[in-house]
């Protein structure tokens, strides 16, 4: 079985780590951001009470795999936020910092293995332990439980998938039939001190009405989950 839920909000920001003063967002939730969202829902303590950079939930996520579907068209929104000026407060107590947000985001997440049982228990009751958000604490997330669905392996053949596609060796796509596609490299896994362990290249659509057509999958894990055909990231 796979647990399926949706997360939506007014804004989202999945910050690119190499942007400094003005924060720029990835166009979709990265697996590392999804890991934090799952940990918040089931109550895995990140340890930030002792060390601000800690992410102690990573060992508990071992064996969990996810798939990510974009349900709302990608729309960008820029805003300037008023922050405390900690470096030179004598000049001005506040500074204004530009941020790039995703406007009115909505995503569907498929989760299998690892923490799946604990996640289902919380989602089915409509509960969470820590406040769920979409990338940053001021982008609160509304969570909707969709259900649990059996997943079935597929024979290698041409398929149209609804999810973000990890780009793995042997993958062949029909870009014209897909209506175009975008490529990005996103963080996939972190250490407990939030240092980067691994990134993965992905292919994605910004229009949820379009599906990505796969001709050959190679090493990619593709299954049917309910009525959808999804592509899985490797298990953490």
From TrEMBL:
The keyword Nucleotidyltransferase appears for this protein: no
GO BP term (any one): maintenance of CRISPR repeat elements
TM annotation in the entry: none
Keyword Metal-binding: no
Pfam families from the UniProt entry: Cas_Cas5d (PF09704)
Gene3D superfamilies given in the database record: 3.30.70.2660
UniProt-recorded name of the protein: Type I-B CRISPR-associated protein Cas5
Upper taxonomic lineage: Bacteria, Bacillati, Bacillota, Clostridia, Eubacteriales
């Amino acid at each position: 079985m796979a647990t399926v839920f949706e997360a939506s909000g007014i804004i989202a920001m999945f910050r690119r780590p190499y942007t400094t003063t003005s924060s720029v967002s990835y166009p979709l939730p990265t697996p590392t951001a999804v890991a934090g969202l799952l940990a918040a829902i089931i109550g895995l303590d990140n340890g930030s009470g002792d060390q601000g950079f800690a992410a102690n939930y990573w060992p508990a996520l071992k064996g969990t795999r996810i798939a990510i579907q974009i349900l709302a068209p990608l729309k960008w929104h820029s805003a300037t936020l008023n922050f405390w000026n900690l470096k030179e407060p004598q000049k001005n107590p506040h500074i204004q910092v530009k941020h790039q947000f995703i406007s009115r985001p909505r995503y569907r997440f498929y989760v299998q293995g690892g923490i799946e049982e604990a996640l289902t228990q919380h989602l089915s009751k409509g509960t969470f332990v820590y406040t769920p958000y979409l990338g940053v604490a001021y982008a609160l997330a509304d969570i909707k439980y969709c259900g649990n669905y059996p997943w079935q392996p597929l024979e290698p053949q041409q398929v149209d998938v609804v999810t973000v596609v990890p780009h793995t060796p042997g993958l062949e796509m029909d870009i014209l039939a897909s209506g175009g596609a975008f490529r990005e490299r996103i963080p996939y896994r972190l250490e407990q001190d939030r240092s980067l362990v691994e990134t993965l290249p992905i292919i994605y659509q910004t229009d949820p009405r379009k599906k990505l057509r796969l001709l050959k999958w190679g090493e990619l894990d593709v299954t049917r989950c309910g009525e959808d055909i999804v592509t899985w990231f490797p298990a953490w």
